[in-house]
Amino acid sequence: MRKIILSVILIALLVFTFFSNFLLTPHPVPAEAVTFDTGDTAWMIVATALVLIMTPGLGFFYGGMVGKKNVISTMLQSFMAMIIVSVLWIVIAFSMSFGTSIGGIIGNPLEYLMFEGVGTKTAWSLAPTIPFMLFALFQAKFAIITPALITGAFAERIRFWAYMLFMVLFILLIYTPLCHMTWHPDGIFFQMGVLDFAGGTVVHMSAGWAALAGAMFLGKRKVQKVNPARITYVLLGTGLLWFGWFGFNAGSALGANGLATQALGTTTVAAAAAGMAWVFIDKILGHKLSAMGACIGTVVGLVAITPAAGFVSIPHAIFIGVFSSLVSNYMVSLFPKGKIDDALDVFACHGVGGMTGMLLTGVFASSTVNPAVVDQGLIFGETKLFFNQTIALVMVSLFAFIASYALFFIVNKITPLRVSEDKEELGLDISQHGEYL
């Protein structure tokens, strides 16, 4: 039955794409073509590629942490996100994210169906110096990495086909409304004045809360204590993530300008400060300075600075890095792994890191750094922004967790989420893919 359903979906997609020019109403191209900035366009092409490389980087980061018999499956979960979400984004998810607003919650799914009207001669209203298609493809890379982040929570025990079904539903029903509400000019969070420069709510909080829901729904692994397969993979993955994150944050300036440079600087120092703080904490607690700790701390700093990157100063970015490292390190030690098996601490690092960054954006955001900041942070004596950031944090947390748990429940009714005990014992590389290191 599953093979029949997949065949029907594939055939329907082929037929629809073949006849799409006849089925869709063409968007007229303005008589006078927009003149784009070549420097901005060149930088955003590079930034788009940088963000994409983060997902295989995440694959190495996660793959090195799991047991040897689950490395390929864990890395493939990230790689398949690049494949599936890329197609899904073009077919409908971009339109649901950036189409004409429906109640400030979701975009019109038909407006840019199959990228109709998303061309190289028009521009998005908030990115007037680059082609519309480039903006859309840049945003696609954010959508790709978000479900990939979730996979670390349920590593070593999920059936691969069930994961892919969850990934599709997550993008359509959770990611797209959060993206629209936060980054579309008519979205409810955007209208509230909530600041999220590059994805604290849209990417990291949504992934973190979905990860917690997944860990709770799937239950514990049979063996929770495993030796990491390849610490060298973790180091490589961290390097790729840090490298790609410059496109993630600096690229969110949507141009080759001073704001991109500011985001580049804040991203650099926040990551370094967080990595430094993590290993210092480990030393104070009597642990050895580990490569794993340095890598995790660095990624936490990258997560926390993401919503604030284009709104805060360099010294404040250092504080955000150190403080987020302290909070996430404490959460990792506090989190009840005996009860909730978040295998790779996705919630403690990405969820909590994203929430910390969102709140600290409400503390340190400055109109001196970015003139688009209407209401400054608490440190400047203003309270409105911090209040709005807090409201958004609560709303996103409740929505992402409840909706994700519901999706896991629905997917499990369609096809079982967990592998059987004997397949978990055998390892997902062999049981799901017939491959091994």
Task: Describe the overall structure.
The chain has 437 residues and is an all-alpha fold. The chain has a single domain, classed as Ammonium transporter AmtB like domains (Ammonium transporter fold). It contains 16 helices and two strands. The chain has helices at residues 2-18, 20-23, 38-63, 71-98, 132-150, 160-183, 188-192, 200-218, 231-250, 258-284, 291-305, 314-334, 346-364, 384-414, 421-426, 428-433; strands at 101-102, 106-107. It has a two-stranded antiparallel ribbon with strand order 1-2. A hairpin with a 3-residue loop joins strand 1 (101-102) and strand 2 (106-107). Helix 4 (71-98) packs parallel to helix 6 (160-183), helix 6 packs antiparallel against helix 8 (200-218) and helix 10 (258-284) crosses helix 12. It is globular and about 60 Å long. The relative contact order is 0.14.
Strands, helices and their partners?
Blueprint lengths: L1 H17 L1 H4 L14 H26 L7 H28 L2 E2 L3 E2 L24 H19 L9 H24 L4 H5 L7 H19 L12 H20 L7 H27 L6 H15 L8 H21 L11 H19 L19 H31 L6 H6 L1 H6 L4
Antiparallel strand pairs: 1-2
Helix pairs in contact: 3-4, 3-5, 3-9, 4-5, 4-6, 5-6, 5-8, 6-8, 6-14, 8-13, 8-14, 9-10, 9-11, 10-11, 10-12, 11-12, 11-13, 12-13, 13-14
Enumerate the spans where pLDDT stays under 50 for 5 or more consecutive residues. Answer: none
Which radius of gyration do the C-alpha atoms yield? 21 Å
Q: Please, what is the average pLDDT?
A: 93
Q: What percent of residues are in strands?
A: under 5%
Share of helix, binned: 55-70%
Q: Helix- and strand-based class?
A: mainly alpha
CATH superfamily membership: Ammonium transporter AmtB like domains
Please identify, by name, the CATH architecture.
Orthogonal Bundle
What top-tier CATH class fits best?
Mainly Alpha
How far apart the termini lie comes to: 32 Å
Which strands sit side by side, in order, in the main sheet?
1-2
Q: What's the count of strands?
A: 2
CATH topology, anyone? Ammonium transporter fold
Order of helices and strands: HHHHEEHHHHHHHHHHHH
Whole-number total of structural domains: 1
The main pleated sheet reads as: 2 strands, antiparallel
Oligomeric form: single chain
